[in-house]
From TrEMBL:
SUPFAM superfamilies: ACP-like. Gene3D superfamilies: ACP-like. Residues 1-80 form the Carrier domain. It comes from the Bacteria. InterPro entries: ACP-like_sf, PP-bd_ACP. This is Acyl carrier protein. Coiled coil: none annotated. The lineage of its organism: Bacteria, Pseudomonadati, Pseudomonadota, Gammaproteobacteria, Pseudomonadales.
Length: 83
């Protein structure tokens, strides 16, 4: 899966949790949860949606690495590449 496909899947999962999010307006360097106003339950639902869509398991210990959209995309890309 290439970077564009990963981005598309992540943004579709995000819009499934927060349909009001305009994906094209998201800045990759800003705190993602703040930018899309996700509370802790929405965040967990989003991570579960990523697991369903991409088969990526994100352990709770790694949550602090997922601060921005760019960081999340890089993390998911690494996890997918590692298998």
């Amino acid at each position: 899966m290439d970077d564009a496909q990963i981005r598309r899947e992540v943004l579709e999962a995000l819009q499934g949790i927060a349909p009001e999010v305009e994906a094209e307006s998201l800045r990759g360097d800003r705190p993602l949860r703040d930018e899309v106003d996700l509370d802790s339950m929405d965040w967990l639902r989003f991570l579960a949606a990523l697991h369903q869509r991409l088969g990526v398991n994100i352990p709770e210990a790694d949550y602090q690495q997922l601060t921005s959209l760019d960081a999340l995309l890089a993390y998911v890309g690494r996890r997918l590449a590692a298998g």
